[in-house]
C-alpha cells in the first residue's frame, strides 16, 4: 500500500502540529498542492484540514511531476503524495516528510510518524492496489487466485522489493478485501460530499 506526504525544506515547519498552527495563524495563506482537482490527495488534505479546523488554499497541478516541481520551487507549501515518487526525494534530502497518512509508518520511511501519531487519532488515508475479478467468477477460481497471490505477497523478497518503493504488503482473504473496499468507498464518498469537493 502506498501512502503519502512531504514539505519544502526551507520551511520552519517540522511536523503536522506546526503546519496546522501556521495554517490557523494565516488562514488561506498556506498553499497545498495536488495532482489535480477532485483527486485523492486533495480530498485527503481537506479531510485533515477539517479535522484540524483550518483552511488552506488548493493549487491543482496536472500530475505528480509538476506538483513536485511546484513544491521544490516554493510555489506550494505542502502536499500529499505517494511514497514511490516523493520517498526517494525525502531520502535524498530534497523534501521534508512531515507524516504518512496511513494507520502505520512506512517501512521505507520508518522515521516519519503517522498523521494519527501527530495529534489526529483515527486519520487513516492510503492509496492502494488490489486484484479483482469479473462478477460471477466461480468461487473456486477466486480462492485459487487468492492462494497464489498470498504466496507471492508473503515471500520475503517480494515484501522487501515492494517496501523499497514505499509499498507495504497487506495479504488477506477475498472476504477481507471486499470488506476493505466497501469501507474505502464509504469513507471517500462521505468525505467528498461533506467537504463539497468537485472536479472543477
What this model shows, in words?
With 200 residues, the chain is α/β, with parallel strands linked by helices. It has helices at residues 16-25, 40-52, 64-73, 83-91, 139-153, 156-163, 174-195; strands spanning 6-8, 31-34, 57-60, 78-79, 95-96. It has a 5-stranded mixed sheet, with helices on both faces. The two termini are 28 Å apart. The model is unreliable at 1-9 (pLDDT under 50).
Please outline the helices and strands.
Elements (H helix, E strand, L loop, with lengths): L5 E3 L7 H10 L5 E4 L5 H13 L4 E4 L3 H10 L4 E2 L3 H9 L3 E2 L42 H15 L2 H8 L10 H22 L5
Parallel strand pairs: 2-3, 2-4
Antiparallel strand pairs: 1-4, 1-5
**Strand arrangement across the biggest beta sheet:** 3-2-4-1-5
Please bin the fraction of helical residues: 40-55%
| DSSP summary: helix tally | 7
* H-E order: EHEHEHEHEHHH
What fraction of residues sit in β-strands? 5-15%
Molecular shape: globular
The biggest sheet, with number of strands, parallel, antiparallel or mixed sense and barrel status, is:
5 strands, mixed
Total strands = 5
How far apart lie the N and C ends? 28 Å
| Computed Rg | 18 Å
Helices and strands: which structural class? alpha/beta
The residue-averaged pLDDT reads 90
Stretches where pLDDT is under 50 for at least 5 consecutive residues are 1-9
